[in-house]
Amino acid sequence: MTQLALVIDLNVCVGCHACVTSCKEWNTSGTAGALADMNPFGKDPTGTFFNRVQTFEVGSYPNTETVHFPKSCLHCEDPPCVPVCPTGASYKREEDGIVLVDSEKCIGCNYCSWACPYGARELDEERKVMTKCTLCVDRIYDESLPENERKPACVNACPTNARLFGDVNDPDSEVSQAIRDQGGYQLMPEWGTHPANHYLPRRRTHITIHDDELVRADNPLNKERQLPMPDADDPTLDETTSW
Amino acid sequence: MHPAFSVIFLTTLIGAGQGLFLALYTGQLYSAFKLLPVQDSANYYVLGSLIVLVLLIAGLVSSFFHLGRPERAWRAAARWQTSWLSREVIVLPAFTGAVAAWGLVHYTGWNPLLFTISDTYEIDLSLVVGAAATLLCFFLFLCTGMIYACIKMLQEWATPLTVVNYTLLGISSGFILATGFAAWQDSGLVDFFGGWAIFVTILAFMTRTASLIRNARIRHKSSLETAIGIRHRHIEQKAQGSMAGSFNTREYFHGASQRNFKYIKWVFLVLVFPLPLMLLSIGLSAQAISLLIAAFLIQYVGLLAERWFFFAQANHPQNLYYQTV
Question: I need a labelling partner for A177 at 20 to 30 A (CA). Which of A120, B92, B127, B167 fits?
């Protein structure tokens, strides 16, 4: 069974918000209606976003690391938001595992957003229905687009290639290999939601050098020194043997 | 969580309505088994069921204010197999209908004798309709409580105590109202309802305190480390992904200061339990209707605070992504 998902490489993300703006740009033109933009030039601008980038500082100065953390719906394999929905507006697609909200059925009761531990759902202030990342379902199957553009808008926009898109249930896909080879992990595994989206951790390129690698361990001269040194007036090897 | 007044009014109003119905029906059941004098049905039960209906319908109307798209509310009955909210949406009107039928049986007087138990106790139609309504009533308490208790991520709610408290606080509120109602109707059941009201209120005090103690000692499963998957004891958030607020900063935070939050806890602990108990016992001994009605009204205000605190106390794991709200 296919399970489409994003794999986000925290080692590469530079926090430029290109995924945020491209997501908003694509999805505000979606068939479900525009994403609200309240008070955009006022004091407290707010609005609907399917994807947000947060920034965390790990460690204490001077040993700190800045982690940019893009956050959107994780398209859980066991989504807690789906069974609680009273209308069936919230559903998970059988064919590709994308979790969606039917904006025609949603009554805007917010109950699904309570059940999501990640806060991945936002009630649109203008349309008054629950909204969330659709993995650009209206884009990835669009055959009028060139094949290399049939990816979520955020993936296309990412300038550092920090976002990978594919089927995490296919062991040979790019995303599955990245998860396996680069230590991909899920968020809040304690809730048993089995998020499909994975994150690749920050990693430093380390090389561990042991002391015995700095000296030639197989150097025969060094080996001999481990034995007691012969006295200075003892005959040398050359004197006692006739080659 | 952000306490929504629509839900606060919904749960407190239907709780009082359900409790009042249970009180009236308990009285009727006692009368049928000849433990209490029979009530004059025309005024007493009809008026009583009307009050229950007003409370239930007021709660239902209030719940509509919680919806972004109230015109689609009918769709909420669709997923009763999986969703407790959907079950509540079905059971609330069903219970309202059963209470209306029960009131109608009393109003019309068309109350045929259905059967007798050991030739002494007569079981008529109103008793059977009332029994069905009682079942629905308890199922409604279960649905309302489970809406909150079934979300395991909200650990403050995910306990059987949530269902127990919704049930006992509703019954307490309804029995206190029944005490006042019986005094107003001069029905002779004042002491009966009053005694039960005191008993249930004390019971509710114990279970609500138990949940407060449980929640004070709660250990949250999620941490910022599991939220972003970075193992480090010192992580500081520098940006939340929005310039001002977002749905995430509004829906999941109660927005009150820590001082007011604690203050409201003490307000509800005083208004819901000791004060109504005091007014009840004085009102019962002095036969003062005004004190009994005051006990209900004061407790209702306290229940609004209790429900506010119930919502505000729940700490959603998504708040970990919003460290500086």
Answer: A120
3-state secondary structure of A123: strand
Which residues on A lie below 8 Å from B236 (Cβ)? Answer: 56-58
Residue A213 forms contact with B (CB below 8 Å): no
| Cβ atoms within 10 Å of A65's Cβ, excluding its own | 13
**Of B79, B82, B231, which to mutate for an interface test with A (greatest number of A Cβ within 10 Å)?**
B79
DSSP code string of B264-300: HHHHHHHHHTHHHHHHHHHHHHHT-HHHHHHHHHHHH
Domain boundaries along the sequence of chain B: 5-218+240-321
Nearest to B180 by CA among B297, B99, B57, B278: B297
User: Contacts from A30-35 at CB under 8 Å and sequence distance 24+?
Assistant: A30/A134, A30/A138, A31/A138, A32/A103, A32/A127, A32/A129, A32/A131, A33/A103, A33/A124, A33/A126, A33/A127, A34/A126, A34/A127, A35/A124, A35/A131
Model pLDDT, residue A130: 97
Closest partner CB to B222 (pick from A60, A83, A190): A190
Of A53, A55, A87, the CB nearest to B78: A87
Residue in B195, B188, B174 with CA at minimum distance from that of residue B280: B195
Q: Which residues of B touch A58 (CB under 8 A)?
A: 230, 232, 234-236
Nearest neighbour of A188 by CB, restricted to B1, B147, B222: B222
Any chain B CB within 8 A of the CB of A161? no
Residue B8 Cα distances to B65, B242, B250, B311, angstroms: 11, 30, 17, 9
Q: Read off the pLDDT of residues B173-227 as tens digits, 9 standing for 90 and up.
A: 999 999 999 999 988 899 999 999 999 999 999 999 999 999 999 999 999 999 9
pTM: 0.91
The reply to whether residue A191 touches residue B317, judged by beta carbons under 8 angstroms, is: yes
Question: Which of A59, A119, A123 comes nearest B68 by C-beta?
Answer: A123
CATH fold for domain B5-218+240-321: Formate dehydrogenase/DMSO reductase fold (1.20.1630)
For residue B231, the 8-state DSSP code is: -
Check CB contact of A189 with chain B, cutoff 8 Å: yes
Could you write out the three-class secondary structure of A37-103?
A: EECCCCCCCEECCCEEEEEEEECCCCCCEEEEEEEECCCCCCCCHHHHCCCCCEEECCCCCCEEECC
